[in-house]
Amino acid sequence: MDQSSITPNTSNQQLVINGDNDSATALLHEKQSRRRITLSDVTFREYMTIGILCFVNLINYMDRFTLAGVLDEVKADFKIGDDKAGLLQTVFVIAYMVFAPIFGYLGDRYSRRLIMAFGVALWSITTFAGSYIYTYAGFAVFRGMVGIGEASYSTIAPTIISDLFVDNVRSKMLAFFYFAIPVGSGFGYIVGSVVGGAAGNWRWGLRVTPILGAVAVALILWVMENPERGQAEESRMKPTSYTEDLRSLVKNPSFMLSTLAFTCVAFVTGALAWWGPQFIFLGLTLQPKVNITQERVSLIFGALTMASGIVGVPLGAWLGAALVKRWGRAHAVICGVGLLVSTPAMALAMLFTDIYPVAPFALMFFGEIALNLNWAIVADMSLYVVIPPRRSTAEAFQILISHMFGDAGSPYLVGVISESLKRASSPTESPSLRVQFRSLQYALFVTCFVEVIGGIFFLLTSLYIVKDKQKVDRAITEAEVQSAEPSHSNAPEEDIGGE
Fold it and tell me: Which residues are within 8 A (CB) of 427 and not within 5 positions of it... i.e. 6 or more apart?
């Protein structure tokens, strides 16, 4: 890569002088040739680590969406409307996103094993304790504390995968990790509805994941591997200051555009995951020949969410692995096209919910498959355009932005719009089922417009992704050359393009 494309910066991460370009290039080729690029090279301990990370991610998302499966019962118990029901998820996400940068900073500098174990223990304890809170305000506070615990895990876990593997193997392992998101979310709906229904109390659904969380803490502390930062890429780069980290990330076009795109994904998935079961239940109830319960709808919705993840996440990873070798922009394009394909399917599903009993489920399943194409790919992109000692900070930054403008507000925003429409349609009496359905339907149409915007941002990311990845690969190699040749300690500083 031409050094002239690398603009000056004040980064403390020094690179070698232009005269060492040949040495850096030779070393880069040598490192790439000796990298482990097949699954047969992965050790048993590394497989165990991935299994543990996926297990924790699974129960993480189970916990998030257990409430969504029993939302009607929660509303009746606390005597609240759609707006306050949406606020429960918003409180959780706000705490999650506010504490993510803190854990991102710590994750780049201190023991990731201890930080993750602390986080899993915190959200397990607060989930269990919160199930015994009988006031709305108190319950909302505990949901916020759950978000703090989950922020520590979600921020750091992907960086451990990036430090264990590279290239195609990393993509496959990230796909496995993010595969747990839709599957865990589906389990959340199922656990909430089945356990709550069997016990006759929705609160018992919240008491399942804390038991699994205790097992997860033990596995993290005593079984999980904790690699050195940059181990897989043999990086010798050291952390810079937090200010320099943030400045570099903001100047990185691929990272920022993919973050904006993922913010749209978070907005859509947050709103649909929270309101989807209740919306479908209201629509089916309006059909004269359909007799169905909220519990049944949550079971079907959860099963479809799981199935769409089983199909969509591996499909996206497979397409990415197959195309990116021949076309470096493939990852970003797949994500963008996936969102643009998902949009009409989701819109039609919402339109047909009160007309056809099967079509909404089928269309939503197809739309979720297209939406799930991006989960593993966007994580891979965010990691390979950022240098190793900056990746926890990058994950935290992306979590902050995507949740602040995404799912922190979308469940509440949809609830507020729905309540406003209900009051406008029935100002002096309780809204009918049809009014409730139409109000929520119109509110959820907002997600379709946001999906289109996200697809456009992903396509814009494709314009920069190849160049930004090359800069990171080169910076890692040049730092190793410099480390091996102390005589260059006074070499002029150069930037890695907002690495």
Answer: none
Helix (H) or strand (E) holding 420: helix 410-425
Confidence of residue 102 (pLDDT cuts 50, 70, 90): confident
pLDDT digits (tens, 9 = 90+) for 388-441: 888 878 888 887 888 788 887 888 899 889 989 998 888 778 888 899 999 999
* Torsion on CA atoms 425, 428, 429, 432, rounded to nearest 10: -10
Asked if 398 contacts 259 with a C-beta cutoff of 8 angstroms, the reply is: yes
Largest CA distance in the chain: 82
CB-facing half-sphere around the CA of 216: CA atoms within 13 A: 28
In this structure, the number of other CB atoms found within 10 A of the CB of residue 30 comes to 10
Burial zone of 154 (CB within 10 Å; 0-12 exposed, 13-18 middle, 19+ buried): buried
Q: How confident is the prediction for the chain on average, in pLDDT?
A: 83
Residue of 382, 363, 144 whose CA lies nearest to 255 = 382
Residue 402 DSSP label? H
Q: What are phi and psi of 61, to 5 degrees?
A: -80, -25
d(CA 146, CA 141): 9
Whole-model pTM: value is 0.75
DSSP conformation class of 287: S
The helix or strand, by DSSP H or E, that contains position 129, with its residue range, turns out to be helix 112-130
* Alpha-carbon span 156 to 107, nearest angstrom: 6
**Closest C-alpha among 191, 444, 183 to residue 295:** 191
CA nearest neighbour of 381 among 308, 455, 320: 320
Structure tokens at 96: 């999650």
Q: What share of the chain is helix, strand, coil (3-state, %, to 5)?
A: 80, 0, 20
The residue type of 396 is A
What is the separation of C-alpha 499 from the centre of its chain, rounded to a whole number of angstroms?
A: 21
Mean pLDDT of 254-280: 91
Q: What's the pLDDT band for 442 if we cut at 50, 70, 90?
A: very high
Residue in 433, 422, 240 with CA at minimum distance from that of residue 353: 433
Neighbours of 197 (CB within 10 A): 21
Torsion sign across C-alpha atoms 198, 204, 208, 209 = positive
**DSSP symbol at 37:** -
Report yes or no: 105 and 115 within 8 Å, Cβ to Cβ.
no
What value does the mean pLDDT take over residues 128-133? 92
| Contact by Cβ (8 Å): 268, 371 | yes
